Amino acid sequence: MTRPDRAPAPRPAKRARASSEAKAATAPAQLDLFPVRPVIDVLDPRVSVGAHTGVEHLVRVRLRSNDAPHLVFHDRHGWYCESHGPTCHTVQLARDVVK
Ligand SMILES: [Zn+2]
Fold it and tell me: The pTM is what?
């Protein structure tokens, strides 16, 4: 899929003149990635999966409050999203939270 809203902007040649006050006026670049704060809930795997589970961590991540949640597991197989596997980018968010 193409994302027309993220077309690369040509860099102005006189970039060196961009002062710190110009930086302060713009939002941090990270906000572009997650315009809305993700909603992250750390769950108890013994409650959600079962008393004898080998799951060490279970984290529910929603990138927006009304999005479908990603369930991120940490067990002997490592970290992975239930729906998208270990490469799902919510895995990193979950790891950061339980660290
Ligand atoms: Zn996922």
Answer: 0.63
Cα(11) to centroid(ligand 1), Å:
34
Which stretch of DSSP H or E encloses residue 73? strand 70-75
- Which among 91, 88, 36, 89 has a CA at the least distance from the CA of 66? 36
What are the structural domain ranges in the chain? 36-99
Q: Give the tens place of pLDDT for each residue, 47-66.
A: 999 999 999 999 999 998 78
The token pair that represents 53 in the structure block: 């589970």
User: Distance from the CA of 85 to the center of ligand 1, in angstroms?
Assistant: 7
Closest by CA to 55, choosing from 92, 80, 89, 84, is 80
